[in-house]
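Subject: for your reference before the review

Hello V.,

The reviewers asked for a structural picture of the protein, and I figured it would be easier to keep everything in one thread rather than splitting it across files. Below is the amino acid sequence we used in the manuscript, unchanged from the supplementary table.
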Amino acid sequence: MTGTATSRRAAGGTRLNEIARTGLQRVRVTAGNETAAVARYRNNPNVLYAERNYVRSIPAPASHTPGTELLPGDHYFKEQWALHNTGQLFYCFAWIDGDLCFYQGTNDADIDAPEAWAMSTGTPVKVAVIDSGIDYTHPDLAANYIGGYDFVSGDSDPMDDHGHGTHVSGTIGGKGLNGQGVAGVCWKIKMVHVKFLGAGGGTTANAIKSVDYITDLKTRHNLNLVATNNSWGGGGYSQALYDAIAAAGMAFHEAQPPLAATAATGAAKRRGRPQRRTGHNLLLRLTTRKDDVLRFLTDPAVPFTNNEAERDGRMMKVRQKISGGFRSQDGASDFAVIRSLIATARKQGWNIPHTLTQNPDALLPRLRTA
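And here is what came back from the structure prediction:
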């Protein structure tokens, strides 16, 4: 009896068919015994891998039923054009012959909040806001505030004496359908507030303390904060703040259980670099190659952009990786020029094949000297 037949018998499976190109075999096992059968196959040294034959499907896109849009009657909702834009006038004041309005919206230039609220008004997911504090007595915010700290005064009362943090919080999670204030994006969200900005601003040192405070809540106190909001800036570049943010991310990822299984086999990866989450890999690069990441700050020749020209540069690197490198400097130069021409033609709406075939003998020299 062959090793394959022995493996099937040991696992209790019946061979149905085989995909010849890969040698993959489809087998039938007793209903209700799938998990144990897969485990037996995986434990057999003659089996490379075993997995269930899952049923794949095309997910139905989430959508609301037309006409069920949820339009809250909150006092300032008509001015929240980013959530629901009908081309309305807003920032209006009584004037001599009627209202004087400073702005007019653009119809449907919004995030379709009423359509989303028709399906869900949110869940009690937890976020942190690092800002000027919060007016936690406000009826739009009181139910969604779960605590925080004030690094300006050095106490656990982050009452807002500026207004910005309260404004941000209303946008994130102001309670809707209560007839007052604003309607936030997520009505059931729970917010932790850390105050480091006072009426006159705040220091980098206190910003770092705020980041550390949130990191401690998440990593040592197991508070599942899924995001932080940081709507502030000013001052010069701070290496200390950079390091604090990177360290916070590293602390989170290092506290996570390891990725001990591959998607294909479910077995531990035995060779090569350890598997890491995408965010963990990014943070490692931001910390171990910090000078390269920040070189755009000191070297004008290094761009910090995500435009088409940068994507063209990426394509040249892809070409290098595929072919193993260009055969000559002229070849690399020609490839870059042609890619730039294609990008320009696409941006201007020109016919690309027509553009590339116009006087091809003179095209490259002319573009090189342009």
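For the response letter, the relevant points are probably these. The longest helix spans residues 329-348. The chain has a mean pLDDT of 82.

Happy to draft the paragraph if you're swamped.

O.
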